[in-house]
From TrEMBL:
<dbReference type="Pfam" id="PF13501">
    <property type="entry name" value="SoxY"/>
</dbReference>
<dbReference type="InterPro" id="IPR016568">
    <property type="entry name" value="Sulphur_oxidation_SoxY"/>
</dbReference>
<keyword id="KW-0732">Signal</keyword>
<dbReference type="InterPro" id="IPR032711">
    <property type="entry name" value="SoxY"/>
</dbReference>
<dbReference type="InterPro" id="IPR019546">
    <property type="entry name" value="TAT_signal_bac_arc"/>
</dbReference>
<dbReference type="InterPro" id="IPR006311">
    <property type="entry name" value="TAT_signal"/>
</dbReference>
<dbReference type="InterPro" id="IPR038162">
    <property type="entry name" value="SoxY_sf"/>
</dbReference>
<protein>
    <submittedName>
        <fullName>Sulfur-oxidizing protein SoxY</fullName>
    </submittedName>
</protein>
<feature type="domain" description="Ig-like SoxY">
    <location>
        <begin position="47"/>
        <end position="149"/>
    </location>
</feature>
<feature type="signal peptide">
    <location>
        <begin position="1"/>
        <end position="30"/>
    </location>
</feature>
Length: 151
């Protein structure tokens, strides 16, 4: 019987072989390094092909008011906007602002949840980017009592 670690190791090896053979879809290999290395919100959005965001009631951000442990802060984003391309989560005061990018297609319900590290109290942004490059956001301040980035 294989352990979970062995199974993951073998799965990664098979995925690597499929990727080098060109058998995986290109979208599975997509990674926007510039966006994930961006230090500010605007730089991350620019790297994703969007301009300055405008506040919108059609974007929903779910986050705790107080995160007792900054190492595992639950965040969720949803939107009712038409023609969505991406749903994005950003933490303003993190060393790298971008937390997650979710690619949205018509077949996908635009409702995602994840967990993030937060080193300190900060504003968290949920941004919906439409196919025409317009960005709409919701914002919430999350207070962190125990920092997750070495604090």
């Amino acid at each position: 019987m294989q352990t979970r670690r062995q199974t993951l190791k073998h799965s990664a090896a098979v995925a690597g072989l499929l990727a080098t053979a060109g058998l995986l879809p290109q979208q599975a290999l997509a990674f926007n390094k510039g966006a994930f290395e961006a230090k500010s919100l605007n730089d991350a959005l620019k790297a994703l092909g969007s301009g300055a965001p405008t506040e919108s009631k059609d974007v929903t951000l779910t986050a705790p008011d107080i995160a007792e442990n900054g190492a595992v802060v639950p965040l969720a984003v949803a939107s009712s906007l038409p023609n969505l391309k991406h749903l994005v989560l950003l933490v303003e005061k993190n060393p790298n602002a971008l937390v997650a990018v979710f690619n949205v297609t018509p077949e996908v319900e635009p409702n995602f949840a994840t967990r993030s590290k937060m080193g300190q109290s900060s504003d968290v942004y949920a941004v919906a980017i439409t196919a025409d490059g317009k960005a709409h956001y919701a914002k919430k301040e999350v207070k962190v009592t125990l920092g997750g980035c070495g604090g």
